[in-house]
Amino acid sequence: MTGELELRRLGYDHPDAAELTERVQRYYVELYGGPDTDPLTAEMVSPPSGGFVIGYLDGVPVAMGGWFRDPDDPAGTAKIRRMYVDPGVRRTGIGRRLLAALESDAARSGVRRMLLATGRPQTGAIALYRRSGYLDVEPFGHYADSDGVVCLGKTLEPALLH
Hints:
Blueprint: E1 6-9, H1 15-32, E2 50-57, E3 60-69, E4 77-85, H2 94-108, E5 113-119, H3 123-131, E6 135-136, E7 149-155
Parallel strand pairs: 4-5
Antiparallel strand pairs: 1-2, 2-3, 3-4, 5-7, 6-7
């Protein structure tokens, strides 16, 4: 695949999101021994309280990610969920561009702070998030009690609103 990355704002119930979700769940089974059990629905990552993006190369879905407002802090905080880039196209800038698109989309909706949780074995993802300005925060969410979770947060720049 050599084409330009195209990011499309689609629903988590889109067939391409379902295909990518199957891929990421297989990846989690290989990496962790089981799938991600933290529930996510299309409604959670739908406007006006969320968003979902699928990345395409040459018309093929290769990446996805979503965000939704934290129900405990609906005015200012959102959580990133189901961010995934196919292994064959990692380390090409797709993850960085996808993350920036999610942050920008959330900022335009009034979000001021992003949170995310990932696993310690996902060192490439952790490095991407840290390079993008994410810092350690207190564990939260479905996996908060897991020794293997890494929770990160970032205050969004006002420039993202433009």
